[in-house]
Amino acid sequence: MKIIVTKDYESLSLRACQLIEEEVERRPDAVLGLATGSTPLGTYKQMIRSYKHGRTDYQHVTTFNLDEYVGLTGDHPQSYRFFMEEQLFKYLNVPSNHTYIPNGTADDMEEECERYERLIDEIGPPDLQLLGIGQNGHIGFNEPGTPFDSETHLIKLAESTRKANARFFDTLEDVPTRAITMGIRSILKSKRILLLASGERKAEAIYRLLNEVVDEKFPASSLNRHADVTLIVDEKAYHKVEETGGNRSVE
Ligand code: F6R
To answer: Is 85 an active-site residue?
Structure first.
């Protein structure tokens, strides 16, 4: 795993944006894997800012998102479809029929999972997959214990994840209990992975990622089995590794 330690969240976001833009410049029809949550917001802001200056053309790009809540339609303000439209898609020229997100209101969820995985295989896999990490090591919505050979599937959200995400909803009860997520194997199909982690609350997860054995109890540890992962982490999220002697080069 390649590790880039940045001074703060802003430089982390800039660096991630640069790597995404480089990918699209190298490969104008790149397939990008995208994530929601707080961490990529700065990256998306930088992409939008840079797009406004005419730097990167997304007209041939395709995107796949990791996950979606079950039961929320795309126009629900807390759905991940809505999040992506508001935080990124509406500002870029990526064609809307090239932006894939699991359908959280499909009649048959099992069929939706299969359909999504097939799309990833047929159109993807992503040339570059952007990931955040949960405090419990989840990636996508793959909670601890998810088999490493899982593909897109339906999951019950861990209470800790519902609590962590409750900040986006009016009450904890409003947070859906299930979601559809790309599995660990689906994520590892990506050619290259960019994992972002920022802030003190991620320090423990980053320490575990870099120090623990690869184990399904800590889903992000599966990334150690992928040949091309870049971790971009800010000083606050890296401090525990550093205190125990990790090497680094600050940008
Ligand atoms: C989002 C996702 C999640 C988040 C993770 C971190 O699509 O799949 O795994 O990346 O929960 O969330 P934040 O960035 O809000 O700390």
So the answer is: no
